[in-house]
Amino acid sequence: MQITLTDQIPLPDDTRRISSPQTKGLPWKEMKVGDSFLVPWLDTPHNLLCHRINGLTAQLQHLGSKFMTRSSLEGIRVWRVR
């Protein structure tokens, strides 16, 4: 098999979702450095909510923002640190 190298093909826009049903409506875009919010556990299994929040923060890092998360008895707190 031979692979052909090409150039001058534009990179498509990033179409990854930045929300899911459990995280829709969270204030990601409005946050300034130092802001935080709490996502309550509600009826969502803890490991599933942690996975979704951490996945979203990883996606947002590709856009130049950085977030930190910490779990507590009430839920997951998210801070914007960059």
Task: List key phrases describing it.
3-stranded antiparallel β-sheet; elongated; about 80 residues; alpha+beta
Structure write-up:
The protein is an alpha+beta fold. It has a domain at 36-80. The chain is 20% helix and 20% strand. The protein contains one helix and three strands; from the N terminus they run E-H-E-E. It has a three-stranded antiparallel sheet, covered by helices on one side. The longest helix has 16 residues, at 46-61. It is elongated and about 55 Å long. The model has no long low-confidence stretch (mean pLDDT 82).
Shape: elongated
SSE run: EHEE
The percent range for helix content is 10-25%
Structural class: alpha+beta
Reported for the largest beta sheet, the result is: 3 strands, antiparallel
Distance between the termini: 45 Å
- Low-pLDDT sequence parts: none
Radius of gyration (CA) equals 17 Å
Count of strand segments: 3
Task: Round the mean pLDDT to the nearest integer and report it.
Answer: 82
What fraction of the residues are assigned to beta strands by DSSP? 15-25%
How are strands sequenced across the largest beta sheet?
1-3-2
- Given the structure, what is the number of helices? 1
